[in-house]
Amino acid sequence: MERKKSESFNYGLAFTLLLFFIISCVAIFNAQQTGQYTTNFVVKQVEWYIVGGVIIFMMMRPDEDQLNRITWFSTVLLFLFLFC
């Protein structure tokens, strides 16, 4: 029995991630009010959430067989990110 992609979407998890996003942005904004840094770290946080969202979206699109075919590529890419 095959489930549709929309049925497998976890709205509770999405809501939790949205709460983490809001809480982390507010916490970073409040922490940087001391004026110690000139860089706006909230923008960097939003950028990283967008990058993570794109990666999650890309991983949700293919089915299991396609994911098995690109596992070696993902592993090599992960090691490159970790060690370079």
Biggest sheet character: none
Terminal Cα span:
43 Å
Counted by DSSP, the helix tally is 4
Secondary structure: helix percent: over 70%
Which parts are unreliable, with pLDDT below 50 for 5 consecutive residues or more?
none
Judged by helices, strands and strand pairing, the structural class is mainly alpha
Fraction in beta strands? under 5%
**Average pLDDT level:** 85
* Radius of gyration (Å): 17 Å
- The beta-strand count equals 0
Helix and strand pattern: HHHH
Structural shape: flat
Brief summary:
With 84 residues, the protein is mainly alpha-helical. It has helices at 11-31, 41-60, 64-69, 71-83.
Explained architecture:
The structure is a single chain. The protein has about 80 residues and is mainly alpha-helical. The chain contains four helices and no strands. Helix 1 runs antiparallel to helix 2. The longest helix has 21 residues, at about 10-30.
Features:
84 residues, mainly alpha, flat, 71% helix
Topology diagram in text:
Blueprint: H1 11-31, H2 41-60, H3 64-69, H4 71-83
